[in-house]
Automatic annotation (TrEMBL):
Record PANTHER family: FAD-DEPENDENT OXIDOREDUCTASE, PYRIDINE NUCLEOTIDE-DISULPHIDE OXIDOREDUCTASE
Domain of life: Bacteria
Gene Ontology molecular function: thiosulfate-cyanide sulfurtransferase activity
Record protein name field: Rhodanese-like domain protein
Organism whose genome encodes this protein: Pseudomyxococcus hansupus
C-alpha cells in the first residue's frame, strides 16, 4: 500500500521514532492524532499505522475510521516489520 501512495504513520512517541522507525514513516503520536488530522490529507488518502506493540496502532486505526478515513491498515507492532 505504501508503495502505491499510502501514508505510513508511526504513532509512537518522538523518542521511540528517533531511536528507530520504518523507512518513509512520519511520526504522529497517537495522543496527538486528533489535533493533527490535517497532516494526513483527505479522508480518501490510504493510511497505514504502526506502533511498538500494536495497541496504539489499534487506537489510531479506530480514531481515523471514526473521522471518516476509509482505507486504514494497522500493521501492528513494528517488531514484526523490521
Amino acid at each position: 500500500m505504501v508503495e502505491s501512495g499510502a501514508l505510513l504513520v508511526d504513532v509512537r512517541t518522538p523518542q521511540e521514532f528517533a531511536a528507530s522507525h520504518l523507512p518513509g514513516a512520519v511520526n504522529i503520536p497517537v495522543d496527538e492524532l486528533p489535533q493533527r488530522l490535517g497532516e494526513l490529507g483527505s479522508p480518501e488518502q490510504p493510511v497505514v499505522v504502526y506502533c511498538g506493540s500494536g495497541k496504539r496502532a489499534s487506537r489510531a486505526e479506530q480514531l481515523l475510521k471514526e473521522q471518516g478515513f476509509q482505507q486504514v491498515v494497522n500493521l501492528g507492532p513494528m517488531s514484526a516489520w523490521e
